[in-house]
Design goal:
Elements: E1 3-5, H1 8-17, H2 20-31, H3 47-53, H4 63-75, H5 78-96, E2 105-111, H6 117-120, E3 126-129, E4 135-140, H7 144-148, H8 150-163, H9 178-200, H10 213-220, H11 231-235, H12 238-243, H13 255-271, H14 283-288
Parallel strand pairs: 1-2, 2-4
Antiparallel strand pairs: 3-4
Helix pairs in contact: 1-2, 1-4, 5-8, 8-9, 9-13, 10-13
Length: 294
């Protein structure tokens, strides 16, 4: 059982300094350790195409801008900080959940695309994915706020990885609801807040709406929605839904994260548990602490 933060600094620097014709091959080699993340994806996966679609750094422009950003992250000790944070967070989760099964986890930390307006604007220059056991990918642009939150961002994704890992909560695409997704985001944020406090812990896109009762009430109306194509609007908000050609529902960016934080906080207050102890808590129990449906 180990967590490995890959040395993507060296790999990205090599890619960005290489002749354009060599960059696809070098990028594919860097991304190869993440192939297992797509094990449920039908058909053959083009890792380079997936990287570019997910706002990963470009390989045909903005080279100097990306190289400068890379040095900003290196100067901040980003990779070392992330490794230390994940190791420390794992120790907290193991203590809180005796018998927790932990797979080997590979962490790919990459620069985002400074030319992607949605990523740099509504997403605030950071996205993460930790829902597939054994793999975490964090895509980031080093805005000062993101560099400050590196640890919190990493442990948020670790919470997802172990919540949906071996012996944990089963994410069944046929039955999973918006409520399940929102609760998982709220728990991951609560775990980051448990370790790093209320200033650094919450995912940035949700912060503007944490105390917006109108947004919260609207999200509650969608908790039972199924069909993962519908989740983007309810969880991430209309700007992300529109980016991917999905129907909007009238919610701002990060609405589901804000609502998830409120649902989880009500549950933790009612039970006296920590977010680490609630790693595998059933989403219906968490929702019931706030929403009573007959």
């Amino acid at each position: 059982m180990s967590i490995t933060v890959l040395d993507t600094y060296s790999a990205m620097r090599r890619i960005l300094l290489a002749p354009v014709a060599d960059r696809v091959g070098l990028l594919r080699s860097m991304l190869e350790p993440t192939r297992g993340m797509y094990r449920y994806h039908p058909g053959e996966i083009d890792l380079v195409a997936m990287h570019l679609e997910a706002s990963g750094f470009p390989i045909d422009r903005d080279e100097q801008r990306c190289l400068d950003a890379l040095e900003t992250l290196a100067a901040a000790g980003a990779w070392e900080r992330m490794q230390r944070a994940l190791d420390d967070a794992l120790a907290v989760l193991l203590e809180a959940t005796p018998g927790l099964e932990v797979p080997d986890i590979t962490v790919l930390f990459v620069l985002g695309d400074p030319g992607d307006e949605h990523f740099m604007g509504p997403c605030r220059g950071v996205t993460g994915f930790g829902g597939i056991s054994g793999h975490i990918v964090i895509t980031l642009w080093p805005f000062p706020e993101n560099v400050e939150r590196l640890e919190a961002t990493a442990v948020h994704e670790l919470h997802h990885n172990l919540r949906f890992g071996p012996g944990g909560v089963v994410w069944n695409p046929m039955t999973v609801t918006v409520g399940d997704h929102i609760v998982s985001e709220g728990l991951a944020d609560a775990f980051a807040r448990q370790l790093y406090g209320d200033e650094l812990g919450p995912t940035r896109i949700g912060v503007p709406h944490l105390h917006d009762d109108e947004v919260f009430s609207k999200v509650l109306t969608g908790l039972d929605v199924t069909g993962m194509q519908n989740f983007t609007a309810w969880v991430h908000g209309d700007p992300s839904a529109e980016r991917f050609g999905l129907p909007p529902v009238g919610l701002p960016m990060g609405a589901g994260y804000a609502a998830g934080n409120r649902l989880v906080d009500a549950y933790l207050a009612a039970t006296g548990r920590t977010a680490a102890q609630a790693l595998h808590a059933d989403s219906s129990e968490i929702i019931a602490a706030t929403v009573h449906r007959g």
